[in-house]
Protein backbone atom coordinates (compact mmCIF):
# COMPACT_ATOMS: atom_id res chain seq x y z
CA UNK A 1 0.00 0.00 0.00
CA UNK A 2 2.76 2.42 0.89
CA UNK A 3 4.54 1.54 -2.35
CA UNK A 4 1.40 2.50 -4.26
CA UNK A 5 1.19 5.78 -2.35
CA UNK A 6 4.84 6.48 -3.09
CA UNK A 7 4.27 5.89 -6.79
CA UNK A 8 1.30 8.24 -6.65
CA UNK A 9 3.47 10.88 -4.97
CA UNK A 10 6.18 10.52 -7.59
CA UNK A 11 3.72 10.79 -10.47
CA UNK A 12 1.82 13.76 -9.05
CA UNK A 13 4.91 15.72 -7.99
CA UNK A 14 6.55 14.93 -11.33
CA UNK A 15 3.54 16.19 -13.26
CA UNK A 16 3.48 19.30 -11.08
CA UNK A 17 7.16 19.90 -11.81
CA UNK A 18 6.42 19.49 -15.53
CA UNK A 19 3.74 22.17 -15.30
CA UNK A 20 6.18 24.48 -13.54
CA UNK A 21 8.63 23.84 -16.35
CA UNK A 22 5.93 24.65 -18.91
CA UNK A 23 5.15 27.88 -17.11
CA UNK A 24 8.83 28.83 -17.11
CA UNK A 25 9.11 28.08 -20.83
CA UNK A 26 6.14 30.38 -21.34
CA UNK A 27 7.82 33.03 -19.22
CA UNK A 28 10.91 32.89 -21.38
CA UNK A 29 9.31 32.56 -24.80
CA UNK A 30 6.11 34.57 -24.83
CA UNK A 31 6.31 37.94 -26.54
CA UNK A 32 4.95 40.37 -23.98
CA UNK A 33 4.17 40.83 -20.31
CA UNK A 34 0.47 39.94 -20.40
CA UNK A 35 0.94 36.59 -22.11
CA UNK A 36 3.83 35.77 -19.79
CA UNK A 37 1.61 36.59 -16.82
CA UNK A 38 -1.03 34.25 -18.19
CA UNK A 39 1.48 31.42 -18.50
CA UNK A 40 2.80 31.97 -15.00
CA UNK A 41 -0.47 32.20 -13.13
CA UNK A 42 -2.18 29.28 -14.83
CA UNK A 43 0.65 26.81 -15.10
CA UNK A 44 2.31 27.55 -11.77
CA UNK A 45 -0.87 27.35 -9.74
CA UNK A 46 -1.81 24.05 -11.37
CA UNK A 47 1.70 22.77 -10.80
CA UNK A 48 1.60 23.74 -7.13
CA UNK A 49 -1.80 22.08 -6.76
CA UNK A 50 -0.45 18.86 -8.20
CA UNK A 51 2.61 18.98 -5.94
CA UNK A 52 0.41 19.52 -2.88
CA UNK A 53 -1.93 16.75 -4.02
CA UNK A 54 1.01 14.41 -4.45
CA UNK A 55 2.41 15.21 -1.02
CA UNK A 56 -0.88 14.60 0.78
CA UNK A 57 -0.39 10.81 1.17
CA UNK A 58 2.98 11.45 2.79
CA UNK A 59 1.86 13.67 5.66
CA UNK A 60 1.10 12.30 9.07
CA UNK A 61 -2.07 13.67 10.54
CA UNK A 62 -5.06 15.46 9.12
CA UNK A 63 -3.94 18.86 10.38
CA UNK A 64 -0.71 18.85 8.40
CA UNK A 65 -2.55 17.85 5.22
CA UNK A 66 -5.01 20.66 5.82
CA UNK A 67 -2.10 23.08 6.23
CA UNK A 68 -0.73 22.02 2.84
CA UNK A 69 -4.07 22.65 1.15
CA UNK A 70 -4.40 26.03 2.88
CA UNK A 71 -0.92 26.94 1.60
CA UNK A 72 -2.04 26.14 -1.94
CA UNK A 73 -5.21 28.24 -1.55
CA UNK A 74 -3.26 31.18 -0.13
CA UNK A 75 -0.75 31.03 -2.99
CA UNK A 76 -3.59 31.01 -5.50
CA UNK A 77 -5.22 33.99 -3.81
CA UNK A 78 -2.08 36.09 -3.65
CA UNK A 79 -0.87 35.20 -7.14
CA UNK A 80 -4.27 36.02 -8.60
CA UNK A 81 -4.11 39.40 -6.91
CA UNK A 82 -0.53 40.05 -7.91
CA UNK A 83 -1.32 39.02 -11.48
CA UNK A 84 -4.20 41.50 -11.65
CA UNK A 85 -2.06 44.30 -10.24
CA UNK A 86 0.81 43.65 -12.65
CA UNK A 87 -1.59 43.44 -15.60
CA UNK A 88 -3.22 46.76 -14.69
CA UNK A 89 0.15 48.43 -14.31
CA UNK A 90 1.18 47.04 -17.69
CA UNK A 91 -2.02 48.31 -19.33
CA UNK A 92 -1.54 51.75 -17.81
CA UNK A 93 2.04 51.82 -19.03
CA UNK A 94 0.90 50.88 -22.54
CA UNK A 95 -1.78 53.53 -22.57
CA UNK A 96 0.84 56.08 -21.54
CA UNK A 97 3.13 55.02 -24.35
CA UNK A 98 0.48 55.16 -27.10
CA UNK B 1 33.02 15.84 -1.75
CA UNK B 2 29.87 15.71 0.27
CA UNK B 3 26.84 17.83 -0.42
CA UNK B 4 27.19 20.44 2.32
CA UNK B 5 30.83 21.02 1.39
CA UNK B 6 29.62 21.96 -2.08
CA UNK B 7 27.44 24.62 -0.49
CA UNK B 8 30.44 25.92 1.43
CA UNK B 9 32.53 26.23 -1.73
CA UNK B 10 29.67 28.03 -3.45
CA UNK B 11 29.52 30.33 -0.43
CA UNK B 12 33.24 31.11 -0.77
CA UNK B 13 32.71 31.94 -4.44
CA UNK B 14 29.76 34.17 -3.53
CA UNK B 15 31.86 36.11 -1.02
CA UNK B 16 34.48 36.70 -3.71
CA UNK B 17 31.86 37.74 -6.27
CA UNK B 18 30.22 40.12 -3.85
CA UNK B 19 33.58 41.60 -2.88
CA UNK B 20 34.47 42.29 -6.49
CA UNK B 21 31.05 43.83 -7.18
CA UNK B 22 31.31 45.91 -4.01
CA UNK B 23 34.66 47.43 -4.97
CA UNK B 24 33.89 47.97 -8.62
CA UNK B 25 30.28 49.23 -8.79
CA UNK B 26 29.95 52.99 -8.95
CA UNK B 27 26.37 53.01 -7.77
CA UNK B 28 25.61 52.79 -4.03
CA UNK B 29 22.54 50.65 -4.67
CA UNK B 30 24.69 48.02 -6.41
CA UNK B 31 27.21 48.28 -3.60
CA UNK B 32 24.49 47.56 -1.05
CA UNK B 33 23.34 44.63 -3.18
CA UNK B 34 26.88 43.26 -3.42
CA UNK B 35 27.30 43.71 0.31
CA UNK B 36 24.20 41.61 0.87
CA UNK B 37 25.61 38.93 -1.42
CA UNK B 38 28.80 38.88 0.67
CA UNK B 39 26.72 38.62 3.84
CA UNK B 40 24.58 35.77 2.60
CA UNK B 41 27.71 33.93 1.42
CA UNK B 42 29.15 34.20 4.91
CA UNK B 43 25.86 32.98 6.38
CA UNK B 44 25.79 30.02 4.02
CA UNK B 45 29.30 29.02 5.03
CA UNK B 46 28.36 29.28 8.68
CA UNK B 47 25.32 27.14 7.97
CA UNK B 48 27.52 24.41 6.52
CA UNK B 49 29.61 24.51 9.69
CA UNK B 50 26.37 24.14 11.66
CA UNK B 51 25.37 21.18 9.50
CA UNK B 52 28.65 19.46 10.16
CA UNK B 53 27.90 19.60 13.86
CA UNK B 54 24.89 17.33 13.55
CA UNK B 55 24.60 14.50 16.04
CA UNK B 56 22.11 11.71 16.59
CA UNK B 57 19.15 13.64 17.94
CA UNK B 58 19.33 16.79 15.86
CA UNK B 59 20.01 17.83 12.29
CA UNK B 60 22.51 20.58 12.93
CA UNK B 61 24.37 22.38 15.68
CA UNK B 62 21.79 24.78 17.10
CA UNK B 63 24.20 27.45 18.36
CA UNK B 64 25.49 28.58 14.91
CA UNK B 65 21.95 28.39 13.54
CA UNK B 66 20.66 30.70 16.25
CA UNK B 67 23.56 33.09 15.58
CA UNK B 68 22.61 32.97 11.90
CA UNK B 69 19.04 34.03 12.66
CA UNK B 70 20.41 36.98 14.62
CA UNK B 71 22.80 37.76 11.77
CA UNK B 72 20.12 37.75 9.09
CA UNK B 73 17.94 40.14 11.08
CA UNK B 74 20.81 42.51 11.86
CA UNK B 75 21.95 42.46 8.21
CA UNK B 76 18.43 43.39 7.18
CA UNK B 77 18.35 46.32 9.58
CA UNK B 78 21.70 47.56 8.27
CA UNK B 79 20.41 47.28 4.70
CA UNK B 80 17.24 49.17 5.63
CA UNK B 81 19.27 52.01 7.13
CA UNK B 82 21.65 52.11 4.15
CA UNK B 83 18.82 52.23 1.63
CA UNK B 84 17.05 54.98 3.56
CA UNK B 85 20.27 57.03 3.53
CA UNK B 86 20.53 56.39 -0.21
CA UNK B 87 16.94 57.49 -0.88
CA UNK B 88 17.51 60.63 1.18
CA UNK B 89 20.65 61.33 -0.84
CA UNK B 90 18.65 60.91 -4.03
CA UNK B 91 16.25 63.60 -2.86
CA UNK B 92 18.98 66.07 -2.00
CA UNK B 93 21.78 65.53 -4.52
CA UNK B 94 21.56 65.64 -8.32
CA UNK B 95 23.07 62.21 -8.69
CA UNK B 96 23.67 59.26 -6.44
CA UNK B 97 26.77 57.74 -7.94
CA UNK B 98 30.07 57.93 -6.17
CA UNK B 99 31.91 59.34 -9.16
CA UNK B 100 33.29 62.85 -8.94
CA UNK B 101 30.91 65.47 -10.36
CA UNK B 102 31.91 67.09 -13.66
CA UNK B 103 33.53 70.54 -13.16
CA UNK B 104 31.13 73.49 -13.29
CA UNK B 105 30.58 74.73 -16.82
CA UNK B 106 31.68 71.52 -18.49
CA UNK B 107 29.10 69.82 -20.71
CA UNK B 108 27.23 67.21 -18.72
CA UNK B 109 28.73 63.92 -19.80
CA UNK B 110 25.66 61.75 -19.28
CA UNK B 111 26.10 58.24 -20.42
CA UNK B 112 23.33 56.60 -22.33
CA UNK B 113 23.81 53.02 -21.18
CA UNK B 114 21.68 52.05 -18.20
CA UNK C 1 21.97 10.91 -7.24
CA UNK C 2 22.01 12.49 -3.82
CA UNK C 3 24.83 14.76 -5.00
CA UNK C 4 22.56 16.16 -7.70
CA UNK C 5 20.13 17.00 -4.94
CA UNK C 6 22.76 19.27 -3.41
CA UNK C 7 24.49 20.38 -6.57
CA UNK C 8 21.45 21.77 -8.37
CA UNK C 9 20.46 24.41 -5.80
CA UNK C 10 24.11 25.19 -5.06
CA UNK C 11 24.95 25.99 -8.68
CA UNK C 12 21.70 27.91 -9.17
CA UNK C 13 22.51 29.98 -6.07
CA UNK C 14 25.94 30.77 -7.43
CA UNK C 15 24.54 31.72 -10.83
CA UNK C 16 21.89 33.99 -9.28
CA UNK C 17 24.43 35.59 -6.94
CA UNK C 18 26.67 36.42 -9.90
CA UNK C 19 23.65 37.73 -11.81
CA UNK C 20 22.51 39.90 -8.92
CA UNK C 21 25.95 41.47 -8.72
CA UNK C 22 26.64 41.97 -12.41
CA UNK C 23 23.30 42.48 -14.14
CA UNK C 24 23.18 45.63 -16.25
CA UNK C 25 19.76 46.83 -15.18
CA UNK C 26 19.29 47.69 -11.51
CA UNK C 27 15.76 46.31 -11.34
CA UNK C 28 16.89 43.02 -12.86
CA UNK C 29 19.60 42.79 -10.22
CA UNK C 30 17.08 43.40 -7.42
CA UNK C 31 14.70 40.80 -8.82
CA UNK C 32 17.64 38.41 -9.13
CA UNK C 33 18.48 39.03 -5.49
CA UNK C 34 14.90 38.22 -4.48
CA UNK C 35 15.04 34.90 -6.32
CA UNK C 36 18.50 34.31 -4.80
CA UNK C 37 17.06 34.75 -1.30
CA UNK C 38 14.29 32.27 -2.01
CA UNK C 39 16.71 29.68 -3.35
CA UNK C 40 18.81 30.17 -0.24
CA UNK C 41 15.72 29.08 1.70
CA UNK C 42 15.85 25.77 -0.15
CA UNK C 43 19.54 25.52 0.68
CA UNK C 44 18.83 26.08 4.36
CA UNK C 45 16.23 23.33 4.42
CA UNK C 46 18.74 20.99 2.82
CA UNK C 47 21.30 21.93 5.44
CA UNK C 48 18.86 21.02 8.18
CA UNK C 49 18.17 24.52 9.49
CA UNK C 50 14.42 24.98 9.12
CA UNK C 51 14.30 27.94 11.53
CA UNK C 52 16.98 29.70 9.52
CA UNK C 53 15.08 28.86 6.32
CA UNK C 54 11.97 30.55 7.71
CA UNK C 55 13.98 33.63 8.70
CA UNK C 56 15.72 33.79 5.33
CA UNK C 57 12.44 33.49 3.43
CA UNK C 58 10.73 36.12 5.56
CA UNK C 59 13.48 38.67 6.16
CA UNK C 60 16.26 37.90 3.71
CA UNK C 61 14.03 37.27 0.72
CA UNK C 62 10.81 39.06 1.54
CA UNK C 63 11.63 42.24 3.44
CA UNK C 64 15.00 42.90 1.85
CA UNK C 65 13.44 42.31 -1.57
CA UNK C 66 10.72 44.88 -0.86
CA UNK C 67 13.37 47.38 0.24
CA UNK C 68 15.49 46.86 -2.85
CA UNK C 69 12.59 46.96 -5.32
CA UNK C 70 11.30 50.16 -3.78
CA UNK C 71 14.78 51.70 -3.95
CA UNK C 72 15.11 50.69 -7.60
CA UNK C 73 11.77 52.30 -8.36
CA UNK C 74 12.66 55.59 -6.69
CA UNK C 75 16.21 56.03 -7.89
CA UNK C 76 16.89 57.33 -11.42
CA UNK C 77 17.71 54.38 -13.62
CA UNK C 78 20.81 55.79 -15.18
CA UNK C 79 22.45 56.08 -11.80
CA UNK C 80 22.01 52.50 -10.74
CA UNK C 81 23.07 50.58 -13.78
CA UNK C 82 26.40 48.91 -14.06
CA UNK C 83 28.42 51.02 -16.44
CA UNK C 84 31.44 49.62 -18.13
CA UNK C 85 33.68 52.53 -17.20
CA UNK C 86 32.68 52.78 -13.58
CA UNK C 87 36.14 52.00 -12.28
CA UNK C 88 39.49 52.12 -13.95
CA UNK C 89 41.41 49.05 -15.04
CA UNK C 90 43.94 49.05 -12.15
CA UNK C 91 41.15 49.04 -9.57
CA UNK C 92 39.38 46.24 -11.44
CA UNK C 93 42.51 44.12 -11.45
CA UNK C 94 43.16 44.75 -7.76
CA UNK C 95 39.53 44.00 -6.92
CA UNK C 96 39.66 40.78 -8.92
CA UNK C 97 42.85 39.76 -7.12
CA UNK C 98 41.33 40.54 -3.73
CA UNK C 99 38.15 38.64 -4.59
CA UNK C 100 40.00 35.57 -5.85
CA UNK C 101 42.31 35.68 -2.84
CA UNK C 102 39.47 35.86 -0.34
CA UNK C 103 37.50 33.11 -2.09
CA UNK C 104 40.51 30.81 -2.20
CA UNK C 105 41.33 31.42 1.44
CA UNK C 106 37.74 30.67 2.45
CA UNK C 107 37.57 27.56 0.29
CA UNK C 108 40.82 26.31 1.77
CA UNK C 109 39.51 26.99 5.28
CA UNK C 110 36.34 25.07 4.52
CA UNK C 111 38.21 22.08 3.15
CA UNK C 112 40.59 22.12 6.10
CA UNK C 113 37.91 21.98 8.79
CA UNK C 114 38.55 19.33 11.47
CA UNK C 115 36.89 16.08 10.50
CA UNK C 116 35.19 15.10 13.74
CA UNK C 117 33.41 18.43 13.60
CA UNK C 118 33.54 20.51 16.75
CA UNK C 119 29.98 20.97 17.87
CA UNK C 120 28.00 22.29 20.79
CA UNK C 121 24.94 20.18 20.00
CA UNK C 122 25.46 17.62 22.80
CA UNK C 123 25.66 20.32 25.47
CA UNK C 124 22.71 22.17 23.97
CA UNK C 125 20.56 19.04 23.97
CA UNK C 126 21.68 17.95 27.43
CA UNK C 127 20.48 21.14 29.09
CA UNK C 128 17.28 21.48 27.05
CA UNK C 129 15.04 20.11 29.79
CA UNK C 130 16.11 22.83 32.20
CA UNK C 131 14.98 25.58 29.82
CA UNK C 132 11.52 24.14 29.35
CA UNK C 133 11.39 24.62 25.58
CA UNK C 134 11.56 21.82 23.06
CA UNK C 135 13.18 23.62 20.14
CA UNK C 136 16.96 23.79 20.67
CA UNK C 137 17.28 26.93 18.58
CA UNK C 138 14.71 28.76 20.70
CA UNK C 139 16.62 27.56 23.75
CA UNK C 140 19.83 29.02 22.34
CA UNK C 141 18.14 32.28 21.38
CA UNK C 142 16.30 32.84 24.63
CA UNK C 143 18.17 30.90 27.27
CA UNK C 144 21.80 30.15 26.45
CA UNK C 145 22.45 33.28 24.36
CA UNK C 146 19.63 35.51 25.52
CA UNK C 147 22.10 38.39 25.67
CA UNK C 148 22.49 38.23 21.87
CA UNK C 149 18.74 38.38 21.34
CA UNK C 150 18.37 41.32 23.69
CA UNK C 151 21.13 43.23 21.93
CA UNK C 152 19.61 42.33 18.57
CA UNK C 153 16.25 43.79 19.60
CA UNK C 154 18.05 46.96 20.70
CA UNK C 155 20.02 47.10 17.43
CA UNK C 156 16.75 46.97 15.50
CA UNK C 157 15.48 49.86 17.57
CA UNK C 158 18.67 51.84 16.93
CA UNK C 159 18.36 51.24 13.18
CA UNK C 160 14.79 52.52 13.35
CA UNK C 161 15.92 55.65 15.18
CA UNK C 162 18.57 56.10 12.48
CA UNK C 163 15.93 55.82 9.79
CA UNK C 164 13.67 58.31 11.54
CA UNK C 165 16.51 60.78 11.93
CA UNK C 166 16.77 60.97 8.13
CA UNK C 167 13.52 62.91 7.88
CA UNK C 168 13.74 66.37 6.34
CA UNK C 169 13.06 69.25 8.69
CA UNK C 170 9.55 69.93 7.43
CA UNK C 171 8.54 66.32 8.07
CA UNK C 172 10.34 65.83 11.37
CA UNK C 173 8.33 63.50 13.58
CA UNK C 174 5.76 63.06 10.85
CA UNK C 175 4.28 60.14 8.99
CA UNK C 176 6.53 57.81 7.03
CA UNK C 177 5.96 57.12 3.42
CA UNK C 178 3.75 58.87 0.91
CA UNK C 179 0.06 58.65 1.68
CA UNK C 180 -0.96 55.64 -0.34
CA UNK C 181 -4.38 55.81 -1.88
CA UNK C 182 -5.75 52.87 -3.74
CA UNK C 183 -9.18 52.39 -5.20
CA UNK C 184 -11.24 51.22 -2.21
CA UNK C 185 -13.08 48.74 -4.44
CA UNK C 186 -10.01 47.62 -6.29
CA UNK C 187 -7.92 44.49 -6.14
CA UNK C 188 -5.27 45.83 -3.78
CA UNK C 189 -7.87 46.91 -1.24
CA UNK C 190 -9.53 43.51 -1.60
CA UNK C 191 -6.39 41.56 -0.81
CA UNK C 192 -5.59 44.01 2.00
CA UNK C 193 -8.90 43.14 3.59
CA UNK C 194 -8.79 39.38 3.03
CA UNK C 195 -5.18 38.53 3.77
CA UNK C 196 -4.35 40.32 7.07
CA UNK C 197 -6.64 38.25 9.32
CA UNK C 198 -5.19 35.05 7.86
CA UNK C 199 -1.67 36.49 8.07
CA UNK C 200 -2.17 37.53 11.67
CA UNK C 201 -3.26 34.02 12.65
CA UNK C 202 -0.37 32.45 10.73
CA UNK C 203 2.13 34.88 12.24
CA UNK C 204 1.00 34.33 15.80
CA UNK C 205 0.90 30.57 15.21
CA UNK C 206 4.48 30.55 13.94
CA UNK C 207 5.50 32.64 16.96
CA UNK C 208 3.73 30.37 19.41
CA UNK C 209 4.83 27.05 17.95
CA UNK C 210 8.46 28.19 17.92
CA UNK C 211 8.85 26.99 21.48
CA UNK C 212 8.81 23.33 20.48
CA UNK C 213 9.04 23.23 16.70
CA UNK C 214 10.68 25.35 13.99
CA UNK C 215 9.35 28.87 14.20
CA UNK C 216 9.86 31.74 16.54
CA UNK C 217 9.13 35.35 17.14
CA UNK C 218 11.24 36.86 14.35
CA UNK C 219 9.49 34.90 11.65
CA UNK C 220 6.04 35.48 13.16
CA UNK C 221 6.70 39.18 13.71
CA UNK C 222 7.79 39.55 10.07
CA UNK C 223 4.50 38.11 8.84
CA UNK C 224 2.49 40.40 11.12
CA UNK C 225 4.58 43.38 9.99
CA UNK C 226 3.99 42.45 6.35
CA UNK C 227 0.24 42.39 6.93
CA UNK C 228 0.32 45.87 8.42
CA UNK C 229 2.43 47.10 5.52
CA UNK C 230 -0.12 45.61 3.12
CA UNK C 231 -2.94 47.59 4.70
CA UNK C 232 -0.78 50.71 4.62
CA UNK C 233 0.05 50.29 0.95
CA UNK C 234 -3.60 49.75 0.06
CA UNK C 235 -4.53 52.97 1.78
CA UNK C 236 -6.76 51.25 4.30
CA UNK C 237 -4.67 52.48 7.21
CA UNK C 238 -2.11 55.22 7.37
CA UNK C 239 1.30 55.11 8.93
CA UNK C 240 1.19 56.74 12.35
CA UNK C 241 3.29 59.87 12.96
CA UNK C 242 6.55 58.75 14.49
CA UNK C 243 6.30 61.32 17.27
CA UNK C 244 3.22 59.67 18.70
CA UNK C 245 3.90 58.68 22.26
CA UNK C 246 1.92 55.44 22.27
CA UNK C 247 3.87 54.20 19.26
CA UNK C 248 7.18 54.93 20.90
CA UNK C 249 6.03 53.30 24.12
CA UNK C 250 5.04 50.13 22.28
CA UNK C 251 8.35 50.06 20.42
CA UNK C 252 10.52 50.21 23.53
CA UNK C 253 8.31 48.03 25.70
CA UNK C 254 9.76 44.80 24.29
CA UNK C 255 13.45 45.53 24.90
CA UNK C 256 12.59 47.17 28.26
CA UNK C 257 10.83 44.03 29.49
CA UNK C 258 13.82 42.03 28.30
CA UNK C 259 16.27 44.23 30.21
CA UNK C 260 14.01 44.20 33.27
CA UNK C 261 13.92 40.40 33.31
CA UNK C 262 17.67 40.41 32.89
CA UNK C 263 18.05 42.69 35.92
CA UNK C 264 15.69 40.45 37.87
CA UNK C 265 17.88 37.53 36.94
CA UNK C 266 20.91 39.41 38.24
CA UNK C 267 19.26 39.51 41.67
CA UNK C 268 17.48 36.17 41.73
CA UNK C 269 19.91 33.92 39.90
CA UNK C 270 23.24 35.65 40.26
CA UNK C 271 23.82 36.58 36.61
CA UNK C 272 22.30 39.11 34.21
CA UNK C 273 19.63 37.27 32.21
CA UNK C 274 20.01 34.19 34.36
CA UNK C 275 16.76 32.41 35.00
CA UNK C 276 15.94 31.14 38.50
CA UNK C 277 15.29 27.43 38.87
CA UNK C 278 11.91 26.43 37.48
CA UNK C 279 11.06 29.93 36.24
CA UNK C 280 12.79 29.56 32.89
CA UNK C 281 9.77 28.71 30.76
CA UNK C 282 7.42 31.39 32.21
CA UNK C 283 10.10 34.06 31.90
CA UNK C 284 10.83 33.04 28.32
CA UNK C 285 7.14 33.24 27.49
CA UNK C 286 6.88 36.72 29.07
CA UNK C 287 9.89 37.93 27.06
CA UNK C 288 8.48 36.55 23.82
CA UNK C 289 5.00 37.98 24.35
CA UNK C 290 6.47 41.39 25.18
CA UNK C 291 8.93 41.33 22.29
CA UNK C 292 6.61 40.18 19.53
CA UNK C 293 4.52 43.38 19.08
CA UNK C 294 7.61 45.56 19.39
CA UNK C 295 9.38 43.50 16.73
CA UNK C 296 6.43 43.60 14.35
CA UNK C 297 6.10 47.37 14.74
CA UNK C 298 9.85 47.91 14.35
CA UNK C 299 10.13 45.80 11.20
CA UNK C 300 7.10 47.40 9.58
CA UNK C 301 8.29 50.92 10.39
CA UNK C 302 11.77 50.17 9.10
CA UNK C 303 10.21 49.31 5.79
CA UNK C 304 7.87 52.30 5.84
CA UNK C 305 10.96 54.48 5.74
CA UNK C 306 11.83 57.95 6.88
CA UNK C 307 9.00 60.39 7.62
CA UNK C 308 7.97 62.34 4.55
CA UNK C 309 4.81 64.09 5.61
CA UNK C 310 4.56 66.44 8.53
CA UNK C 311 2.73 65.28 11.61
CA UNK C 312 -0.01 67.84 11.17
CA UNK C 313 -1.50 66.16 8.10
How many domains, in number, for the residues of chain A? Answer: 1
CATH topology of chain B: Helix Hairpins
Q: How large is the share of residues in beta strands of chain A?
A: under 5%
- Structural class by sheet pairing and helices of chain A: mainly alpha
> How many structural domains can be distinguished in the coordinates of chain B?
1
User: Main beta sheet of chain A: strand number and arrangement?
Assistant: none
Describe this structure in words.
The complex is a heterotrimer of chains A (98), B (114) and C (313). By secondary structure, chain A is an all-alpha fold. In chain A, 89% of the residues lie in helices and 0% in strands. The longest helix of chain A is centred in the last third of the chain and has 36 residues, at 62-97. Chain B is mainly α and 114 residues long. Chain B starts with a helix and ends in a 22-residue tail after the last helix. The relative contact order of chain B is 0.12. Chain C has a two-stranded antiparallel sheet with strand order 1-2. Chain C has 2 domains: 1-118, Up-down Bundle (Four Helix Bundle (Hemerythrin (Met), subunit A)), CATH 1.20.120; 126-313, no CATH class. Chain C starts with a helix and ends with a strand. By secondary structure, chain C is mainly α. Chains B and C meet through helix 1, helix 2 and helix 3 of B and helix 1, helix 2, helix 3, helix 4 and helix 5 of C.
Keywords, please?
A: 98 residues, 0% strand, B: 114 residues, Helix Hairpins, elongated
Question: TL;DR of this structure?
Answer:
The complex is a heterotrimer of chains A (98), B (114) and C (313). With 98 residues, chain A is mainly alpha-helical.
Chain-wise SSE layout:
The complex is a heterotrimer of chains A (about 100), B (about 110) and C (about 325).
Chain A: H1 2-29, H2 33-55, H3 62-97
Helix pairs in contact in A: 1-2, 2-3
Chain B: H1 3-24, H2 28-52, H3 62-92
Chain C: H1 2-22, H2 26-46, H3 50-74, H4 77-80, H5 89-111, H6 121-126, H7 128-131, H8 136-144, H9 146-164, E1 175-176, H10 187-209, H11 217-233, H12 245-268, H13 280-304, E2 307-309
Antiparallel strand pairs in C: 1-2
Amino acid sequence: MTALLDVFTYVAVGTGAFFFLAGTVGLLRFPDALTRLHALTKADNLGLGLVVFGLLPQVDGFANGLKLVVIWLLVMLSSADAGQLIARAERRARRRDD
Amino acid sequence: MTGPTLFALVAAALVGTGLYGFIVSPSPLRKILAFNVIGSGVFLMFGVIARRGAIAGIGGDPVPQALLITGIVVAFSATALAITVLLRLAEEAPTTTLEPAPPRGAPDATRTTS
Amino acid sequence: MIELFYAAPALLILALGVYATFARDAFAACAGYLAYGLLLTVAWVQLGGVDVALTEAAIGGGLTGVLLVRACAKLPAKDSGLRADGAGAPIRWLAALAAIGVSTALAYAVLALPVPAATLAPEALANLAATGVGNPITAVLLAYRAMDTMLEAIVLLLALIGIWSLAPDRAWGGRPGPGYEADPHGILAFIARVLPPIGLVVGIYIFWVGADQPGGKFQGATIVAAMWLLTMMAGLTDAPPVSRRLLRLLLVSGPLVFVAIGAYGAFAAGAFLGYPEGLAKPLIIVIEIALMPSLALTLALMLAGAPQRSAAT
